[in-house]
Design goal:
It is built from four helices and seven strands. The protein is α/β, with parallel strands linked by helices. A hairpin with a 2-residue loop joins strand 5 and strand 6. The relative contact order is 0.17.
């Protein structure tokens, strides 16, 4: 038998929901990331793509967004002031102009999680994209940005339980 909700139960439920939704997201801790990822000197990055798409800055920008959304206190600095820091190296960016018409684009990264000078985790990750829905109408930088965003999500999940020599994304 269903009973109609009483005024008291409605008020109690509303107060409970207000309390729960007002609670802050649990902080995931402080982490320092570099302003840009390092591009490995042997990385296969087309100079035009490097200059126009700036994947080294784009990947850290997207990582910062993902980490903040996950509750991290993110500091962007070349040198960590203590605590945990992430070092990122771009190993490869596959892509030429022409957007999706010139084939899929990809990005490969390696990273190290350092705490107080000691490496406590490391990874290699790779993501590939053809541009997704309406990919034929997207430019090369937009598609490489999709790869960088997917890697940023992968790294954020990995940081919940970092391990040595992890393989992220399509690795």
């Amino acid at each position: 038998m269903n009973r109609p909700a009483t005024r008291a139960s409605i008020i109690f439920t509303a107060a409970l929901l207000a309390t729960v939704t007002a609670l802050p997201v649990a902080a995931a801790g402080k982490i320092t990331i570099p302003p840009t990822a390092t591009i490995d000197p042997n990385a296969g990055v087309n100079p035009k793509v490097r200059d126009e798409c700036v994947p080294d800055a784009r990947v850290t920008e997207l990582l910062k967004e993902q980490l903040k959304a996950a509750g991290y206190d993110v500091e962007v600095a070349k040198q960590a002031s203590g605590g945990k820091s992430l070092q990122l190296t771009i190993l490869n960016v596959t892509g030429v102009g022409g957007g999706a018409w010139s084939g899929p684009k990809s990005m490969t990264l390696s990273g190290k999680l350092v705490q107080d000078g000691k490496v406590i985790g490391s990874f290699n990750g790779r993501r590939t994209s053809g541009g997704g829905a309406f990919g034929a109408y997207k430019g090369t930088c937009s598609i490489i940005g999709r790869c960088a965003k997917a890697l940023a999500k992968d790294i954020t999940v990995w940081l919940e339980n970092p391990t040595m020599d992890a393989r992220l994304g399509e690795m």
